[in-house]
Design goal:
This protein is mainly alpha-helical. The protein has two domains: 31 residues; 56 residues. Helices cover 69% and strands 0% of the residues. The two termini are 46 Å apart.
């Protein structure tokens, strides 16, 4: 499949010929389809991963704001920045 993606000449005819050669040589990999019973668990794990990433991003933003103003608590920040921190939490 890399032969098609790395080819300098990109036409349907050339791609079809390359794909036909790969099929003749049994070099096209099988596609994997997730079973229905695992699909729901996979989607749940993806949603959890997205929430964890978002949580880390928020914590890093708050830590950066505290470092920017050289304070250790959000209550010591200027009022508008403190509001921003509260909105992030």
């Amino acid at each position: 499949m890399k032969a098609i993606s790395y080819a300098k000449v990109k036409t349907d005819a050339v791609d079809a010929a390359t794909l036909a050669q790969l099929l003749r040589g049994d070099l096209v990999p099988e596609a994997h389809i997730v079973s229905a019973e695992w699909r729901e668990a996979r989607d749940l794990l993806r949603a959890r991963l997205q929430l964890v990433r978002q949580q880390v991003r928020v914590k890093n933003t708050i830590t950066g704001l505290l470092a920017q103003y050289n304070v250790t608590a959000p209550s010591a920040l200027p009022p508008l920045v403190e509001l921003r921190v509260r909105l992030l939490q």
